[in-house]
């Protein structure tokens, strides 16, 4: 299993964030948000305008989206994802 995060932030900012929080997964930069848009992770956010929609997309070994969660909150979400892959 591979975990990857994505953000429109520049690579340098993502590297600092990875180091600050000792992340054990890769963060990818998507400055034009083309990939974020393709997976539904960029768009209108109620009361906050257009931007990143915090989301998780589970992609199977065949490259197809198996499940997606949108508007997620950090607390408890990782456990929810882990339970869905068991």
What structural class do you assign from the helix and strand content?
A: alpha+beta
| Rg, alpha carbons | 13 Å
CATH architectural group: 3-Layer(aba) Sandwich
Q: State the distance separating the first and last CA atoms.
A: 12 Å
Q: Count of helical segments?
A: 3
Order of helices and strands: EHEHEEEEH
Short description:
By secondary structure, the protein is α+β, with helices and mostly antiparallel strands.
Describe this structure in words.
The structure is a single chain. This protein has a single domain (4-85), classed as Glutaredoxin, CATH 3.40.30.10. The strands form 3 sheets. A two-stranded parallel sheet has the order 1-2. The mean pLDDT is 92. 28% of the residues lie in helices and 31% in strands. It is built from 3 helices and 6 strands; from the N terminus they run E-H-E-H-E-E-E-E-H. With 86 residues, the chain is α+β, with helices and mostly antiparallel strands. Strand 1 (4-7), helix 1 and strand 2 form a beta-alpha-beta unit. It has helices at 11-20, 34-38, 77-85, and strands at residues 4-7, 26-29, 42-45, 49-52, 55-59, 65-70.
Features:
86 residues; 28% helix; alpha+beta; 3 helices; Glutaredoxin; single chain; two-stranded parallel ribbon; two-stranded antiparallel ribbon
